[in-house]
Amino acid sequence: MQKVRGDLLNISKLKVVFYTYRGIIKALNGVELWMNKGERLGIVGETGCGKSVTALSIMGLIEQPGEIMEGDILFGDKLLTSMQETSLINIRGKEISMIFQEPNAALNPVMKVGFQIAESISKVKNKKIGKEVYVEVRRMLEIAGLDWERTINLYPHELSGGMAQRVMIAMALSSNPKLLIADEPTSALDVTIQAQILELLDELVKKFGNAVILITHNMGVAAEFCDKMAVMYAGNMVEYARTTNIFENPHHPYTRGLLKAVPKIGRTDELQSIPGIVPDLVNPPSGCRFHPRCKHAMDICRKDFPPLVEIKSDHYVACYLYGKEDIQNANS
User: Fold this and answer.
1) How far is CA 49 from the centre of its chain?
2) Among candidates 141, 160, 155, which has minimal Cα distance to 108?
3) Tens digit of pLDDT for each residue in 241-260?
4) Residue 181 — very low, low, confident or very high, per pLDDT cuts 50/70/90?
């Protein structure tokens, strides 16, 4: 385990693979990530870059044919990667909760919404499902902005997309977790409902004081909601900094490429795309996985992957264009 950088979560050299008929998919390639209590961290990047796999690793939900090959996930003083499933159950849903990308897929289709929330509360608080638990169900539905009398007896297929996501938020926050992971919570919703869900999440997080990891491919959503941002590419963390620094002074060529592709009000120049395609993670490029698409690629980029180093205060980049002295120190 490397040095502890955050007082809530520290991920070090995390490698995850998936065994498929095509070969071994190297999904995560030594991910480094950390955060403090009460922070809001956005993880951004293209589809397939490893954002959701990182979240599932934290939750201990990597199942066959997937496997965590190496690395550590330290949550507070608990090393999650060395825990048995029976121990993880006491953390999952209680101290770490997750809002999944497809709420209707995450809800049980044959159980009423109220019972599913009650079941979650009863497990976390070790109480039998009864009047006291249903009082808490009512409270959480009201907090989520839902008509509890109507919603409590509905089945998931009777909910709109926005209602289903509010139910998931109510369920995830019912235990007041230290860390809430929101995996693309607005991707399946229209723009108006997206804004409502983000506003609700913002209000509730301020009220409960939870730390949040927001996984998204939408840079605008991350800019609006997050204190810090981590940019991922092909299973690697390539840049990590405060959100304002990412937008005002991006360093990694991939981060710059993403920002050049973001439309803005009043922008008159042509949007630019990043040349090339996302690499096949069964046979990823050697060295830096971004080098086939990078106009600044050097010989060393094709041979060795650069470590994530601090090039400015609280600004980390994995790129040989910057911080050569810091990279030498990191490798020594």
Assistant:
1) 11
2) 155
3) 999 999 999 999 999 999 88
4) very high
Nearest-angstrom CA–CA distance, 181 and 212: 6
DSSP letters for 106-165: HS-TTS-HHHHHHHHHHHHHT--SSHHHHHHHHHHHHHTT--HHHHTT--GGGS-HHHHH
pLDDT of res. 139: 93
What does DSSP say about strands 9-20 and 66-75: parallel, antiparallel, or unpaired?
antiparallel
- Answering whether pTM is above 0.70, one says yes
Q: Which two tokens stand for residue 243?
A: 């959100």
DSSP string, 204-216: HHHHHT-EEEEEE
> Looking at residue 271, what DSSP letter applies?
P
**Residue 98 pLDDT exceeds 70:** yes
Mean pLDDT, residues 174-180:
92
Using the Cα atoms of residue 109, residue 112, residue 117 and residue 121 in order, give the sign of their dihedral. negative
- List the CATH code of the domain at 9-234+280-284: 3.40.50.300
